[in-house]
Structures are given as structure tokens and as C-alpha cells.
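Internal tracking record. Fields below are filled automatically when a chain is submitted to the structure queue. Please do not edit lines marked as system-generated. If the sequence contains nonstandard residues, flag them in the REMARKS field before resubmitting.
Queue: standard
Priority: normal
Entity type: single polypeptide chain
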Amino acid sequence: MLRLRHWMMTATLLLTVGVAGAAEVLLGPGDVVRIGVYGSPDMAVETRVSEAGTITFPLLGQVGVGGLAVAAAERKIANLLETGGFLKKPQVNMIITNLASQQVSVLGQVNRPGRYPVEGRRKVLDLLAMAGGIGTEGGDVVSLVRTRNGVAQRDTLDVVDMVRKGELAGDIDVAGGDVIYVERAPRAYIVGEVQRPGPFRLERAMTLQQALSAGGGLGPRGSLHGLRITRRDAAGHSTTIDAKMSDAIEVDDVITVRESWF
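SYSTEM-GENERATED OUTPUT FOLLOWS
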């Protein structure tokens, strides 16, 4: 069931890639561009945008293109060639062959963590899809860390809830330099007389009865009497309570299943 859940989520996310609208990409350091001038094959060049935002172009030397869209960079080069007396009404064509400046890091519990280019308008769900979707150990809530106007900020998105409800308006646009991080899903623990003692994934609104199922059910000597939950409060103090099957399980709870006396 867990595998099916994540497969369905990944498939849903993959569908979002095709719906992102196109937007102009701004050139930045590290981008590699191929430039040609119609009728002047000797001026064809492939060059990288420097950290200062410049490229080296025949006859012109250093040309600042950082922060410009491709069309604007084409016009700038054409204007410099014409005003410099090199060509009359040159037709300049530029293609980005490697978009290195506009990349988003997708880290944590995804199937293919790494850096992904942002070509056009992209949102968090698009980048998760590029990274192969959330892995089986990943949680439902995703963090987006970004810097806007010199101020760092962190946003969280409950992607599972967003997809289930179809409320994609809460998806957030991303830009180069952003970091998307998927944390490990919250866990609780079950010990004692169960088939599979140890940690288990804590699902939403999970009850003690469901937690016992996650532990494989009672062992041969397990008892449903005297079930206990040990829980830590915000100050780190532990409290042990007698539990009922309908009790909700919280993050880091430790469930103890006792041995039957009979």
C-alpha cells in the first residue's frame, strides 16, 4: 500500500511538468551560449558567460549579457556590430547550450537528488517531478529555501494535501539558487511482543490500532492488555500513559506491547 501511495504521488507530480508556462530565461554566470551571425560563418562562436556576466565575441571583445534575456542579448550584439562599423543590419542568433546559472537544488528524500535547470516558469512540483518524485522514506511536507531581495526565507508546502485536494494554487514559483528539501517522514517506534519491532512511518491521524498493524501485529506472546505509549513533551520530559486502540500516535512515540501472562 505504501509503495502504491508513493507511485501514485510520483505519477501525479510527473503530470505537472508539461503545464508550466514558458518565460524568458535570463543569462547568468556559467551559462554556455552558441552565437551565430547570418552570412558571417567566421563569427560563429560558443562561449561561456563569466562571473562578471560577460562573454567574449569576435571583433567586440567583452560584451555584458548577464541579466539579459536571449532576445535582448541578440539585439545588443547586433547593435554593437552595426555601431562599430563591422556589419550592416546583422542578424544575430543565440542558443543556450548549457543553462548553469538558473538551477535549483533538490535534496533530501527524493529519488534523484541533484541540481536541475529552471528553463521557463517552474514550480516546486515541477522540480520534484524532475527529481523522480518523493522517495518511499520522504515526508509529505517539503521545504523551499530561497533568497529574494537579499532576504532569505523558508516556505513549507504540504504537497500530498495539495495534490489530493487539487489546490495547486499553493504551488510556488522557483528560481535559480533556490533549494528544495524533502525531509524523512516522521516516525514512531514499537517495541515488545510484536512481529516487527522498531521504527515505522507515522501516517496522518494514525491510531494505536494502525500502529500495531505497522508492526506486523502481535507476536505469539503479545497481549492487547496493558498497552503503553511513552511520549516526550516540548521540554524533553517523558510521560508514559496507558493507551487505547483509538488513541492517536504522535511523532517519536514509543509503543510498548507487553507479554501475555496466559
